[in-house]
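The records we work with from here on pair a chain with its fold. Here is one such record, which you should read through line by line:
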Amino acid sequence: MDYEAYYRKSDRDGFTAYYQSIAEASPADPQATARTRDAEGTIPGEARDKLFNVAAEIKNTFHELGSPLPPLLEGCTVVDLCCGSGRDTYLAAQLVGPNGKVIGVEPNAERLAVAEKYLDKEIKQFSYDASNVELRQGVPEDLSFIPSASADVVISNCTFNLSPDKGAYLREVKRILKPEGEFYFTDVFTDRRIPQAVSDDAKAVATRLGGALFVEDFRRIAQQNGFYDPRYVMTWKTPLTDEEQALFPGIAFATITSRLINSELTCDHCEDYGEEVVYDGSLPDYPDFFLFDKDIKFPANQSCHVCDNVSVLGLGGSRYAKVITVSGNRDVHYGDIHGDHVIKTAPDFSGVVDEDDQPIQVSCC
């Protein structure tokens, strides 16, 4: 199956028009589309007090509530895709500091105009001598105005599923990320494919539901485009109105914050090289543990045996190497991190046959 084609709604020439149609179909109340919740901890503690520095109009016209902002952004170059009125852009601008940079990219001119309106005021509010924010009208599927390997982090707040070409979107994200850079974003996913007739409806997509991917298709598309080990950091059920539930009968939705590392040191399976990591406990929001994904926490100052896809956080040019130390190397390969049960449970071969003295055939499921 061509997974990218299933979700594709437009080609390169029609991306801008497609996003405009979604904006026009959006509810009058921006928060009607919000799928992330502050109460779920999606705004990190270090960013919460910085909300007071962001103009009220920016916050009131922003289409989400939570913020996918990973730790250790100081001095980084961050790209905020489909930044809307710029709330997350201006939060990130405070987290990267005066020596960092944030590029906000927004397809819709009206929403971008709100962010632009307050640019000078926001920079003064942050007490910066010069602006560290660049605002551009454009689409995530064509970021040709951003140099390759120039971004440390790319963020997106419930807008990936608006994309008319998810494959092109991810290819551009990977292109602009530095080696060991991170795509950290929040979006809605499903437990099955949404019928194309429904996902073709701009109104359904504008609710942040119609364009949602079957979570396994997302994994496949991510891996096809070089993000070999997508991780889900936080997950929670997505609230639906009765009207929305009727439009998507039987489909379960979850809002997920995902972490995709742009590293050639990762692979599509967790393999064991005997590596250990130690998190030093220095992140203000994580004094007791580092949250790698929804299933893995590194207790502070404890050595943890990890797979090759996890150890990359402390290797190479990763900014996480400031707080995570890796011991061991990749000279010796120990196989599957969990043990390969297909191999280890295989019986001794002595001519395994069925009752008709024929080789055993295995059926599906």
